[in-house]
Design a protein that fits this description.
two-stranded parallel ribbon; mainly beta; about 90 residues; Jelly Rolls; 7 strands; 1 helix; about 10% helix
């Protein structure tokens, strides 16, 4: 299974897609996803959850997921690493 890595303290961006382009994968970070518009199915750890505009999803590094997009979807991502975030807060 593919694993995506993030080496930034905080990474925020938006993706707008008609079709999900990434195979089932895990991360080395936490991921908070805001569904700005659209709908479909979130496949998470072998389970299926419908998603729609206004939903918020929280994923851990242990989660395996992908999406099936039914209606063009805009996802806003906030990616962060718990250990790096704690260390940055302590330094302040």
């Amino acid at each position: 299974m593919k694993r995506f890595n993030n080496f930034r303290l905080l990474n925020v961006f938006t993706l707008e897609l008609d079709k999900w382009e990434f195979e089932l994968h895990r991360h080395n970070f936490y991921e908070l996803i805001f569904v700005e518009r659209g709908s479909g199915v979130h496949l998470l750890n072998g389970l299926q959850f419908p998603y729609k505009k206004g939903d918020v999803l929280l994923l851990t590094p242990d989660d395996a997921h992908e999406f099936e997009i039914k209606k063009r979807t805009a996802f806003t991502y906030l990616k962060f690493d718990e250990k790096d975030t704690r260390a940055a807060i302590r330094r302040q």
